[in-house]
């Protein structure tokens, strides 16, 4: 058997997240059906991570196994002709037999986009928020995240993880004209973590909470004390990094 990594992107608006579900259409389901059709055999896939309903990805990866030696250009052309317009595949690479899109990922990056004025071209891919925000204070709070490794306060309560430890590489806001963009990179993310962080940082930006309050939230490790979860449509999985040694 040969193992391949497939790079893809999708607009998650019409889908119920990444993972296959019984009574709802998911991104993984679409990809598995398309790949199985091209390979003419049922083919299972494994993604680098799970995105929730309505969340997008400008870079996502999956892996699958096949007995065939695939031609990347031909394979990508066939898959893209089958997939709907809001899902696309970009690259196909052969990896070692034990290469794993989820477990071999070294870093994952997300961005969260907030529109500061109404924009008809961003309604599905950015959260409209027109109240005043203290951008500097939000960035000071974001910087504080880098001093911590336990993020239980930002994890969904019902989760099956063994620990809440994440190593953050970056966390900051930038402003581009009428849009705020939150950047965050970590070796792993907890369920609902990024949207919970964004919602809590918004509470800091509105003045509801001080930087001292934000520090207490981090140290108390209680999701109920953190802020609301920002809407899913502003969130993008934007980069997944792998060690070059796994590729053939």
TrEMBL record:
Enzyme Commission code(s) on record: 5.4.99.12
Domain Pseudouridine synthase I TruA alpha/beta positions: 9-95, 141-243
Reactions catalysed, as given in the entry: uridine(38/39/40) in tRNA = pseudouridine(38/39/40) in tRNA
Sorted UniProt keywords: Isomerase, tRNA processing
Tagged with keyword rRNA processing: no
Chain sites annotated for binding substrate: 110
GO biological process assignments: tRNA pseudouridine synthesis
InterPro entries for this protein: PsdUridine_synth_cat_dom_sf, PsdUridine_synth_TruA, PsdUridine_synth_TruA_a/b_dom, PsdUridine_synth_TruA_C, TruA/RsuA/RluB/E/F_N
GO MF annotations, alphabetized: RNA binding; tRNA pseudouridine(38-40) synthase activity
Keyword tRNA processing: yes
Active site: 52 (nucleophile)
Assembly mode: Homodimer.
PANTHER family assigned: PSEUDOURIDYLATE SYNTHASE, TRNA PSEUDOURIDINE SYNTHASE-LIKE 1
Function: Formation of pseudouridine at positions 38, 39 and 40 in the anticodon stem and loop of transfer RNAs.
Annotated family: Belongs to the tRNA pseudouridine synthase TruA family.
Protein name from the UniProt record: tRNA pseudouridine synthase A
Organism: Rhodonellum psychrophilum GCM71 = DSM 17998
């Amino acid at each position: 058997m040969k193992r391949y990594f497939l790079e893809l992107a999708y607009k998650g608006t019409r889908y119920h997240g990444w993972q296959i579900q019984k009574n709802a259409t998911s991104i993984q389901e679409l990809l598995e059906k398309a790949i199985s059709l091209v390979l003419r055999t049922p083919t299972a896939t494994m993604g680098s991570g799970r995105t929730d309903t309505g969340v997008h990805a400008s870079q996502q990866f999956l892996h699958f196994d096949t007995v065939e030696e695939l031609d990347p250009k031909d394979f990508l052309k066939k898959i893209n002709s089958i997939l709907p317009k809001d899902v696309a595949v970009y690259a196909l690479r052969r990896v070692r037999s034990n290469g794993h899109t989820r477990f071999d990922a070294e870093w994952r990056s997300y961005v969260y986009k907030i529109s500061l004025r109404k924009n008809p071209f961003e309604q599905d891919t950015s959260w409209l928020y027109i109240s005043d925000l203290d951008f500097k204070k939000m960035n000071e709070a974001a910087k504080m995240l880098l001093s911590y490794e336990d993020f239980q306060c930002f994890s969904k309560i019902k989760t099956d993880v063994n620990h809440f430890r994440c190593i953050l590489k970056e966390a900051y806001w930038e402003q581009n004209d009428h849009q705020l963009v939150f950047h965050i990179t970590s070796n792993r993310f907890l369920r609902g973590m990024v949207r919970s962080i964004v919602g809590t940082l918004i509470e800091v930006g509105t003045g509801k909470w001080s930087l001292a309050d934000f520090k207490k939230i981090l140290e108390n490790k209680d999701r109920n004390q953190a802020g609301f979860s920002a809407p899913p449509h502003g969130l993008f999985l934007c980069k997944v990094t792998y060690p070059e040694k796994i590729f053939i």
